[in-house]
Amino acid sequence: xxxxxxxxxxxxxxxxxxxxxxxxxxxxxxxxxxxxxxxxxxxxxxxxxxxxxxxxxxxxxxxxxxxxxxxxxxxxxxxxxxxxxxxxxxxxxxxxxxxxxxxxxxxxxxxxxxxxxxxxxxxxxxxxxxxxxxxxxxxxxxxxxxxxxxxxxxxxxxxxxxxxxxxxxxxxxxxxxxxxxxxxxxxxxxxxxxxxxxxxxxxxxxxxxxxxxxxxxxxxxxxxxxxxxxxxxxxxxxxxxxxxxxxxxxxxxxxxxxxxxxxxxxxxxxxxxxxxxxxxxxxxxxxxxxxxxxxxxxxxxxxxxxxxx
Length: 309
Known about the structure:
The protein is an alpha/beta fold. The chain has a single domain, classed as HUPs (Rossmann fold), CATH 3.40.50. The chain has helices spanning about 25-40, 60-70, 85-100, 110-115, 120-125, 130-150, 160-170, 175-180, 205-215, 230-245, 250-260, 290-295; strands at about 15, 20, 50-55, 75-80, 105-110, 155, 185, 195, 275, 280, 305-309. The strands form 3 sheets. Strands 7-8-6-3-4-5-11 form a 7-stranded mixed sheet, with helices on both faces.
């Protein structure tokens, strides 16, 4: 393994994609610089703006929350407890411990406390693809918390690997609407909807895991029981195989799309209106969340039960 590119010290990571190795000190410096560059390059936040970080307890979201705090941003956390047995218990505990150690504000929204059921049961009753149902529910609940607490920006832990796999999937199926919206910073499209940012897009899973380990950040490495067989994992494996053979492929593919390819996908103009049931912004008469919950036999109008840690 090569020596640290900065000080020639003992390296903790060797990044073939950037042809550089780093010791602990300079890796942390590198990681934070990449997050800062993403925020600045894509104009994700204005100075002093509060951001709500969606934290699952996994390595990516925990690394993101720590990095934003370390860079001086006013970053609060939101954890949505899906009620999936040990997976959810450990995920929530990790988030609560981090908030206590860092003195950070954490909101916790419990699916069971709010709707009297968990994500596994909702998926079973709706008979829909689990990741799609989970994504719909979490986005809706996140928007509700944003409105309750007054945030205008939400940050998620999507990293270079996630975005590259998503791009490949969308290209394979020519999802033009998704391709038009795939970008590190999506501005608000409605007064009640937040801007969405992805500050980890310049960093992959190898980097986020090492950042957590070097800084001693606890994270829950368990796989979500509902994610088994997810197509996104297939695309990740494919992209990783290409990266192993040709280091730097992910960066060239993703950054090249943003710089040269995305301009070719404009997407159809979307008109938002109020959901006939809950009143939240939607493109249909009744929003997808309300339709899913009704199909599952659950009252979609229950007020989210949010606690603060």
